[in-house]
Amino acid sequence: MRSVLRIVNRVLIGFVGLVLLALGGSVLAIGLGARPPSWWIHDGRHDVLLSNAERTRWRDEGWWWPAVIAALAVLLLLALWWLVANVRRRRLADVLVDTGDGEGALLRGRALESVLAAEVARLGGVDQAHVRLTGRRSLPEARVRLLLEPHVDPGHALQLLSSEALVHARDSAGLAALPAEVRLRGVKHHAERVT
Hints:
The protein has helices at about 1-30, 50-55, 65-85, 110-120, 155-170; strands at about 95, 105-110, 125-135, 140-150, 180-185. It is of the alpha+beta class. It starts with a helix and ends in a 9-residue tail after the last strand.
């Protein structure tokens, strides 16, 4: 998906750039006195982009405003999809493991995520753990969400995570570093009854 998004970005930026360059260059050339071809939208230096007749020609037609609104809605949805696709951090599919022979090996990102989550869940005081790898395959980053049991010191749980589970994952994958963003949340529990 990431390569598809990269291709879409390049094609979209290239197309918009070419259109803007062609329109801007033609307006500049005609403004400086060049003779436009007969099929071009401008006739000469003092011609306007849209005349009154062109701007109001379709206004009284019943299909005009729904068509304009539908086209703008489609453009808005495409722009929102493009924005979300570029902003959202993607899950890392593979992690590049240094094997020492110069080639390297690929480790499935989900496999490392599940092993890391299982080790974190075994730490004292952790009820549930969710791990997601992001970043590049040679420099992965971990996003860890921990659900802590009641009465657990969050600092102690974070210290165990960083000194044990993350170190084991980093060393087993042969990574120079494994930075992590950790979000902690406590399990909701019922009030204790005192008798």
